Amino acid sequence: MQVLTTRVGGVGLLVAAAVVMLTEMPEVSATRWTVGGKMGWTTNVNYTIWAEGKHFYYDDWLFFVYDRNQMNVLEVNKTEYENCNSDQPLHNFTTGAGRDVVHLNVTRPYYFISGKGFCYGGMKLAIHVRHLPPPPSASPFNAKNSALRSSYIGHTPCVLTAVFAIAALREAFRRFCLVGSARPQLMENSLLGWYLLWSHFGDEYLLTTRVFMSQRIQV
């Protein structure tokens, strides 16, 4: 009888594959726009020009930096924006710190001005918030791969658990077959590994058992 042992190097490849799946998880982050850039929220800045070419998407933020002792941040409707009327603002985002943020959590036009007459000096901003456009349509092959990758990512915790449990089991079986004096302790480790697989995969451990037994002994 010849004992066939599976090298742990194969498990290392599985670990590397799992790590790659983690690194390929998509990251989506909102943009925080500092209104006016380095100039901030102040007079004598053309905010129409500043907003040109910029795309404001759902869940982005506007960051207003200004002189807290003079200006403020008011959201108004289109008519009040055009007339620089701050008497009945829709929202007053002024906190008194001169550092105010506005969460763009609705896809629609937004109109901002500063009251106290500063709107006439150019402190007015109009933007339109839209949903982030979908990614370019992929070929059927790429779409299938993308769906599979998403499925793998969703099961990453289970995959990692299985990988490390299998690694421990294979090493334990290898030593169990080669080192007789260490068999009691190694058997205990093996049972622990089986328990880990059972607790995470239930009845699927039967299939795993068949695979291990078929790989362990060849006549």
UniProtKB/TrEMBL annotation:
The UniProt transmembrane annotation reads none
**InterPro entries given in the database record:** Phytocyanin-like, Phytocyanin_dom
Q: Where is the Phytocyanin domain?
A: 31-131
Question: What exactly does this protein do?
Answer: May act as a carbohydrate transporter.
Keywords of the record, alphabetical order, are: Disulfide bond, Glycoprotein, Signal
What protein does this entry describe?
Answer: Lamin-like protein
Cellular component GO terms held in the UniProt record = plasma membrane
A GO molecular function held by the record? electron transfer activity
- Domain of life per record: Eukaryota
Write out the similarity annotation.
Belongs to the early nodulin-like (ENODL) family.
What residue range is the signal peptide?
A: 1-30
